[in-house]
Amino acid sequence: MEKNAKKSQMDNVPEEAEEKDDADRYRAPALDKGLDILELLAEQRAGLTRAEITKALGRNASEIYRMLERLVARQYVIRSEGGDRYALSLKLFALAHRHPPMERLISEALPLMQRFADEAEQSCHLAVYDRGNLLVIAQVDGPGTWGIAVRLGSRVGLVDTSSGRTLLAWQTPEQRAHMLAEHTKVKGEVAIDHAALEAACEQVREAGFSRKDSQQIFGVTDVTFPVLGPSGQAIAALTCPFLKRIDDYVAPSLDEATQMLSATVQTLSMFREDGAA
What we know:
The chain is an alpha+beta fold and 277 residues long. The protein is 49% helix and 16% strand. It has 11 helices and 8 strands.
């Protein structure tokens, strides 16, 4: 009888209450604190001080201090040069490269890249930041007899390429500093001082894209637009290494190809902003 009474009582417990009991039963307070910090910082483009984090989360200063130190030690969070502000590092972004969302980005990008290549009659490639330089994760050839193709899986320079400077231009100062601290030169990469690089990134940001002569191949004009994520930061860069025809064939001009690439990236960035990845 007693067992039946207990069973009857359990049967009367609302489903929401059972779910709440399960959530409470499997709580991990330390993990919750760490995730709270990461989720809070994900919404802050300029980072937060420890006091601001403590106030926003309604926790005591000592537990936030310990958790922040662990997140910094594990490189999920970076501390500003002055040591007073904290922001997300790119580690979570790097981990995402090994996860299906990166495959989803590629699958969404490839049809758009193919359409651009067919209409502009130029090749294009998509690159992301990865461990100190750029990784080419997708590449489509143009339909013509000639073209410039960057081999899939290639690593290209962070500071001397249109793709690299575009990615750097659409990061927070803390994230850009972290990327440059991790920077590893690729073969042939041209060095540039910090002030000149900052100026170049600012020019790209103001223009909304990068269009300049390639520093790797003579006769090529690199056109690059950032693929923006939900936070407004660049998660990838789409580049067209434009080749100008000098024979009698009339192909889309550099300006026309630039407009086509812009439209392609706007569609792809909207995909990211919709949270589909």
